[in-house]
Amino acid sequence: MVGITAYGAYIPFNRLERRRLAEAFGEPAPPGEKAVANYDEDSVTMAVEAARDCLNGLSPGDLGGVYFATTTPPYREKQSATTVSAALDAPELVRTADFTSTLRAGSTALLAAADAVKSGAGSVLVAAADCRLGAAKGQFEQLFGDAAAAFVIGKENVLAEIEDACTVAGDVITQWREAEDRYVRTWEDRFVVSRGYGPLVTKALTAMAGRRKISPQDINKLVLYAPSPRYQAGTALSLGFQKQQIQDGLFDTVGIAGAAHAPLMLAAALEQAEPGDRILLVTFGEGADAILFRVTENIKQFSPRRGVAAYLQSKKNTMNYQTYLRWKKMLDFEPPRRPDPDRPSAPAMWRNAKKNLAFYGSRCTKCGTPQIPAQRVCVHCQARDEMEPYRFADITARIATYTVDYLTFSQDPPTVFAVIDFDGGGRLLCEMTDCDPAAVDIGVEVEMSFRRLYQAGGIHNYYWKARPKR
Amino acid sequence: MSIRDKVAIIGMGCTRFGEHWDKSADDMLVEAAYEALEDAGLAPEDIQAYWLGTCASGWAGISLSEPLKIQYRPVTRVENFCATGTDAFRNACYAVASGAYDIAMAIGVEKLKDSGYSGLVITPPPGDGTDPNYSAPAAFSLLAPAYFKKYGLDPETGKKVLARIAYKNHKNGALNPKAQFRQEVPMEKILKSPIVAAPLGVMDCSGVSDGSAAAIIVRAEDAKKFKKDPIYVKALSVVCGPGHGAMHQDYDFTTIRETYYAGLDAYRQAGITNPREEISMAEVHDCFTPTELVIYEDLGFSERGRAWRDVLDGVFDLDGKLPVNPDGGLKSFGHPIGASGLRMLYEMYLQLRGQAGPRQIDNPKLGLTHNLGGFPWEAVCSVCIVGKETG
């Protein structure tokens, strides 16, 4: 039996209320809010967070593959699955791949992972994340949100078996970005739906229904991607599904999260699922993927660290549109009178990869003091070369002291820096993120989050920051 | 083992500190060096060796030998963060004490105003880019909430204590013709200055300026041949720490250990057991107001947890029990890194010889200078003690 053995999600802390778009342009906007990746988040960092949510205590050392799915990869030439894999502390002998350039990337990666597992890859983690941009004042700016979801596909302790899958390919121009485009383009809605989305989704489901002799009433939840809320319901109902079978599209709370959208809905469906439930995942993008899951008894044994429900609750929705423009680099702001950061040194990044990505320090075997970065000579007892690796990524810490820096280079000043003391020992002076400066105080509990510090010389520099516990 | 009473300063020079748009580092070196030579009654060829302190305004000894047209003599360039100037002086003192040279010059310079950036900009060596890029005021502001919390100061009292330090230094600087800022600043203005790194405002930060200062050193027994009133070196200490405070939880950000250990070392050399009573005056590294606050405790001028009361009680005012930064400090002078340590010594040189004009302290015997480079948790610290007489 091959299927999902773990699942998790990530929704950024910050949400933009759509009324702020309405206020900015004096035009109506859809209801609700959308999730907005902070300026230090991208598809890679969100994928890592979703994967951590999914692994929740499971050993990354058991992974045989790490797949990353997105339409917004940071690089056109350089794999990102390797970054995700290293940040999770997955083994070096691991199969990695990026699935990209289609909204079906998430489901395609899931199917590829299932195939890899069938051919002996052990278990494969799939992390889908997206942060697509719509141009200012457009419908996509209103609709799109940023989020991620992650799954482990394996053979043991399967909590949702893959019963069947069907893929239809269809080279229709519906939504696209040319290699240099920042913003998503689209053909007119009527064409997209009547000659693209509608027929391709129908074809995949009809093919599967014929093959497996199933009909809509056999399905407990339909996890259906749609280019907009109205087409989700319209298409589902026209195929014979009832309203209560349709998994919430998260349009009012997250927004359409690209290649991660259907995977995120799937994670939400699994959080509510009962043994025996059948969940049908349907994605769209130059064709359609349909994957049929049957939930097993094991669903009761698993929960993600936070999951969709908790991430939806943990939020701050006071950001304004100017902040959104700043974070998304859609408007040029006057730079601080400080030098731009130099590009990081590739050899130094390579030497320090265990620290930078998996967030390892060291622990002295003579006196037991944890320390980060890893040291040769112990900061406590000065013993030389008596260290063992010690990973700080999942350890909670408390603020020892802090400052709010208005002077330093930042895409969103002021920057909060804090000295944090880890439970069990070890201290780090680091940047804080997703925090309200007024709420930062000595003693506040924080957790580590994988972020992009900056880009320079075309290099995205990823590292860890602290954030108030979500 | 001690440097005590082995060497003396027989001449000093100091440019005015400020925004010298019209002067290069070379210009300032020439000014400070020649002022020191004239003060000592010496000619350039009398100097046998030089130590040049500069943090980022030049490289190698030729940064000094070329502007001064030094005729093929040894010049050593020294860099040790904010202790650069004092460390140049320290090395020159050791060279003279050893007998390798009879007359040496220590000179420091920094040209900060050419970068176009506010605050100090130092380009680090290539790295993995994960070091947090806090600004200097942010790094030192970490001391403030920790100190306030430990000693029970509410934020308003804490802010007032810090402002009082800035107020005092500006008040002293107003009396100094060589200071960058020569105006008293009212407490209200300091308290309301725009925040740069909470809780620090602009007025909690030292200025950014250009400047140069120089000293000429001979052995103590030769000093009176050159100058009737030389000053004598009593102690020289430079301490570097292991960077412990950023990695180890037992550091509480209410002290800077390098200052404490450099103070201990200097007091041992000078034979001082009660600094609050024995030191007549001090020039300390007030890069930011909380730095000066913890320095009082680290150098033993105040008991632990008591410095903030001493500040409010005026203990460190010009007319207080132990005047600190009588020349106006980094606050009024700005902080041209390589020059600051020698600028502090220049004030001691004036005060000990009764030449400080309206800032003159009544009959001082021993003066202390202190520099702190780096950050509260990983610092280079220098402490130097000088006196009016030997013995």
In short:
The complex is a heterodimer of chains A (470) and B (391). Chain A has 470 residues and is of the alpha+beta class.
Describe this structure in words.
The complex is a heterodimer of chains A (470) and B (391). In chain A, 25% of the residues lie in helices and 29% in strands. With 470 residues, chain A is α+β, with helices and mostly antiparallel strands. Chain A has two domains: 3-327, Peroxisomal Thiolase, Chain A, domain 1; 362-468, OB fold (Dihydrolipoamide Acetyltransferase, E2P), CATH 2.40.50. The mean pLDDT of chain A is 96. Chain B is of the alpha/beta class and 391 residues long. Chain B has a nine-stranded mixed β-sheet with strand order 3-2-4-7-1-8-11-10-9, sandwiched between helices. In chain B, strands 5-6 form a two-stranded antiparallel sheet. In chain B, helix 2 (62-68) links the parallel strand 2 and strand 3. The interface between A and B is large, with 49 and 39 residues.
Give the helices and strands, then pairings.
The complex is a heterodimer of chains A (470) and B (391).
Chain A: E1 3-10, E2 14-17, H1 18-25, E3 33-36, H2 43-55, E4 63-70, H3 81-87, E5 95-100, H4 105-118, E6 123-130, H5 139-143, E7 147-154, E8 160-169, E9 175-176, E10 185-186, H6 189-212, E11 221-224, H7 229-238, H8 261-272, E12 278-284, E13 287-295, H9 307-313, H10 321-327, H11 346-351, H12 353-356, E14 360-364, E15 370-371, E16 387-391, E17 397-405, E18 415-422, E19 427-431, E20 445-456, E21 459-468
Chain B: E1 7-14, H1 25-40, E2 49-53, H2 62-68, E3 75-78, H3 84-97, E4 103-110, H4 136-141, H5 143-150, H6 155-173, H7 187-191, E5 195-198, E6 200-201, E7 211-219, H8 220-226, E8 231-240, H9 257-270, H10 275-278, E9 281-283, H11 289-298, H12 307-312, H13 329-333, H14 337-352, E10 366-375, E11 378-387
Parallel strand pairs in B: 2-3, 2-4, 9-10
Antiparallel strand pairs in B: 1-7, 1-8, 4-7, 5-6, 8-11, 10-11
Helix pairs in contact in B: 1-2, 3-14, 6-11
